[in-house]
């Protein structure tokens, strides 16, 4: 069974996203520890990419800060090894296809497996292109996470049937970033998924406060929060980890309401 | 449905590497295009637009003075610079705007580098009564302020893109982001033979009118096919348009001229085939300028239209199988060719097209007089005059 399932055993899951190396690896290390100790069930670690086409301005900014700080894929791997000495909850990478491909898909995914990365989220790999990485993910037992969007419609069943780890439900149209409203059809999307699989569903894109967390957690098995976490890093830099811990605690409590 | 849809591949290149949010929109576009490309009514409408609005067919001009001056192969220029809006871009834009209109879309979005594609898209939107939003790197809006004004004059709104290097690749990223936000009524009018399938095929088909005409005009004038067809390559739309109907004619040599910037041994280059490696970006697998960790490189060329870190997947494939060759041309060489063609033939070529002219200046003298070269002049150079003057040390601003 996928280790990612464990993240959904403690009530509705709270999944924060942190960009590795923003603004430096020590801050990421402390932020991940703070998140894990304050109730995060799974952590999504971003490997920066120069041109993150699925991200809004906040996470784009994190990518720029991290790359300017000298982060590389190899340094991210070293960071994860260090995190793994302290943190046992599931961890997944979120990055772009070219970061994986240019490293050598086999070598990248083999390394993920060796250092304790349980899954991969790659927004520019839709169902039609998953053969690019899936054979390696199967070989090394790393889950390639499927995404479902409000525009997926007739594609939901096809995607859900083959989903591994968890299903990432995109809350609304557009890129990542805080927003005040979400697609009204999320219940229907989850119901459609439930018809064909019991793989857990988590909703992400735009969730930033406890009220939204509570509301969205009722719809699915968990929620993903990226830009709101990155905002704290943007504002507080190396001082951010403590505030991130407090934010995670508040959001997890909201998920459990 | 098959497990993996292999449509849209050129050898190993191409594909549909885009967010799930866009997949249904891309499939809708694919289905609409499959339908309309075989629809005689659509083709007739497009043909009318080409001939009566865009000034097609464009001339195939025998450059007698240039030929005599170089003393080698006979040189013909395919005059895409004489099209309405001054470049080949209009061929693709009229096709896509017509397609979008048939699909019931009311809004066009586009990326632009120098502004040529943005101006062409704004033109088509004005003609067809559609809303138009153009994304342009903030750097480029400053370098090409006049084109920003042109787009606004044509009724489009221009969004300066401040992210990344604030140039063409960032404008493409931002247009893609905008499309994920609003897919229902919006068509993304991509400007080159790049991005996810079906764009490389759609844009190629609309630009293929260039090689179709070259072939007919050449047979009429010379009674035979040319020996060499050459064009500049950024994303590669005028080049693939110039090559397409000659791909099966193996005796015709196809040469793409890439922007080497300050040289392919420097980091200030945009020569993707010559310096890039295989990657996945902006929806496609192809060659890209990138670092060892796959971060896309900030490329450079004097020509904003060639200043892109990737190349269309069909070009990557033509390179792989050895059917076309891709040569680097530096800023200096392109500027010299820009000046040469202006004073020799009285034709001011776009700085993009000047890259192809520059390579012809190198090879024509080495070829026999009974050989024939066709150079596609993808656009007119009026837009570049101030920048080239500054390159030559003159203090001229638009």
Percent strand of chain B equals 15-25%
Q: What is the helix tally of chain B?
A: 16
Main sheet characteristics of chain B? 6 strands, mixed
Within the largest sheet of chain B, what's the order of strands? 3-4-14-9-10-13
Mean pLDDT of chain B: 95
Beta fraction of chain A: 5-15%
The total count of strands of chain B amounts to 14
CATH superfamily of chain A: Aldolase class I
Mean pLDDT score of chain A? 96
End-to-end CA span of chain B:
55 Å
Terminal CA distance of chain A reads 28 Å
Shape annotation of chain A: globular
- What is the H/E order of chain B? EEHHEHEHEHEHHEHEHHEHEHEEHEHHEH
Structure description:
The complex is a heterodimer of chains A (about 260) and B (about 400). With about 260 residues, chain A is of the alpha/beta class. Chain A has a single domain (about 5-255), classed as Aldolase class I (TIM Barrel, Alpha-Beta Barrel), CATH 3.20.20. Chain A is about 45% helix and about 15% strand. Chain A is built from 11 helices and 9 strands. Chain B is an alpha/beta fold. Chain B has 16 helices and 14 strands. In chain B, the strands form 3 sheets. Chain B has a 6-stranded mixed beta sheet, with helices on both faces. A 4-stranded antiparallel beta sheet of chain B has the order 1-2-12-11. The relative contact order of chain B is 0.16. The interface of A and B includes residues 50, 131 and 153 of A.
List the helices and strands and how they pair.
The complex is a heterodimer of chains A (about 260) and B (about 400).
Chain A lengths: L12 E7 L5 H13 L5 E4 L10 H12 L4 H12 L6 E4 L2 H7 L1 H11 L3 E3 L12 H7 L2 E2 L1 E3 L7 H6 L5 E4 L15 H11 L4 E4 L5 H10 L2 E4 L1 H10 L3 H17 L1
Parallel strand pairs in A: 1-2, 1-9, 2-3, 3-4, 4-5, 6-7, 7-8, 8-9
Helix pairs in contact in A: 1-3, 1-11, 2-10, 4-5, 5-6, 9-11, 10-11
Chain B lengths: L8 E2 L2 E5 L2 H17 L3 H13 L7 E3 L1 H7 L3 E6 L9 H14 L4 E6 L3 H13 L2 E7 H6 L1 H9 L3 E5 L6 H14 L4 E3 L10 H9 L1 H14 L5 E6 L3 H7 L9 E9 L10 H4 L1 E5 L1 E6 L24 H8 L3 E7 H15 L5 H13 L8 E6 L7 H7 L7
Parallel strand pairs in B: 4-14, 5-6, 5-8, 6-7, 9-10, 9-14, 10-13
Antiparallel strand pairs in B: 1-2, 2-12, 3-4, 11-12
């Amino acid at each position: 069974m996928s280790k990612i399932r464990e993240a959904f055993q403690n009530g509705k899951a709270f999944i924060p996203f942190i960009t590795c190396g923003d603004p430096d690896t020590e801050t990421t290390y402390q932020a991940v520890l703070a998140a894990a100790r304050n109730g995060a069930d799974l952590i999504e670690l971003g490997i920066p990419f120069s041109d993150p086409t699925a991200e809004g301005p906040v996470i784009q900014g994190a990518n720029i800060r991290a790359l300017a700080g000298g982060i590389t894929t190899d340094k991210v791997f070293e960071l994860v090894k260090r995190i793994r000495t302290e943190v046992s909850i599931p961890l997944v990478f979120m990055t772009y296809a070219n970061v994986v491909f240019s490293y050598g898909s086999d070598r990248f995914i083999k390394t993920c497996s060796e250092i304790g990365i349980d899954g991969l989220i790659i927004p520019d790999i839709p169902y039609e292109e998953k053969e690019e990485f899936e054979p390696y993910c199967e070989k090394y037992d790393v889950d390639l996470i499927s995404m479902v969007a409000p525009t997926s419609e007739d594609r939901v069943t096809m995607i859900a049937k083959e989903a591994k780890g968890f299903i990432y439900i995109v809350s609304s149209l557009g890129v990542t970033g805080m927003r005040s409203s979400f697609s009204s059809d999320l219940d229907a999307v989850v119901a459609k998924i439930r018809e064909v699989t019991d793989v857990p569903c988590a909703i992400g894109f735009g969730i930033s406060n406890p009220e939204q967390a509570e509301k969205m957690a009722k719809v699915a098995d968990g929620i993903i929060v990226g830009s709101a976490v990155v905002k704290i890093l943007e504002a507080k830099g190396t001082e951010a980890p403590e505030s991130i811990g407090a934010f995670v605690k508040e959001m997890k409590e909201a998920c459990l309401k | 449905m098959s497990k993996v849809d292999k449509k849209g591949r050129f050898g190993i290149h191409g594909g549909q590497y885009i967010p799930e949010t866009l997949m249904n929109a891309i499939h809708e576009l694919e289905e609409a295009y499959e339908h309309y490309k075989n629809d005689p009514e659509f083709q007739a409408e497009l043909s009318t637009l080409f001939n009566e609005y865009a000034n097609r067919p464009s001339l195939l001009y025998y450059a007698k003075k240039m030929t005599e001056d170089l003393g080698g192969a006979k040189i013909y220029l395919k005059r895409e610079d004489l099209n309405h809006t001054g470049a080949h871009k209009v061929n693709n834009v009229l096709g896509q705007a017509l397609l979008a209109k048939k699909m019931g879309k009311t809004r066009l979005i586009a990326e632009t580098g120098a502004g040529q594609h943005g101006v062409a898209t704004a033109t088509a939107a004005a003609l067809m009564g559609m809303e138009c939003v153009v994304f342009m790197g903030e750097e480029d809006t400053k370098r090409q302020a006049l084109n920003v004004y042109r787009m606004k004059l044509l009724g489009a709104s221009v969004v300066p893109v401040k992210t990344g290097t604030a140039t063409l690749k960032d404008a493409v990223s931002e247009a893609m982001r905008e499309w994920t936000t609003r897919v229902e009524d919006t068509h993304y009018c991509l400007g080159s033979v790049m991005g996810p399938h079906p764009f490389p095929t759609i844009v190629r088909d609309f630009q293929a009118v260039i090689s179709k005409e070259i072939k007919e005009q050449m047979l009429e004038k010379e009674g035979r096919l040319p020996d060499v067809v050459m064009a500049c390559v950024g994303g590669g739309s005028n080049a693939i348009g110039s090559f397409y109907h000659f791909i099966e004619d193996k005796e015709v040599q196809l040469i793409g001229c890439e922007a080497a910037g300050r040289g392919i041994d420097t980091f200030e280059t945009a020569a993707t085939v010559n310096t890039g490696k295989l990657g996945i970006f902006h929806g496609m697998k192809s060659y890209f300028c990138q670092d060892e960790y796959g971060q896309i490189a900030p490329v450079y060329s004097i020509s904003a239209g060639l200043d892109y870190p990737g190349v269309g997947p069909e070009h990557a494939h033509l390179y792989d199988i050895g059917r076309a060759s891709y040569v680097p041309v530096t800023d200096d060489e392109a500027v010299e060719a820009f000046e040469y063609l202006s004073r020799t033939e009285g034709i001011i070529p776009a700085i993009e097209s000047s890259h192809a002219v520059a390579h012809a200046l190198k090879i024509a003298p080495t070829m026999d007089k009974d050989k024939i070269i066709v150079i596609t002049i993808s656009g007119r150079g009026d837009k570049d005059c101030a920048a080239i003057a500054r390159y030559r040390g003159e203090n001229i601003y638009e």
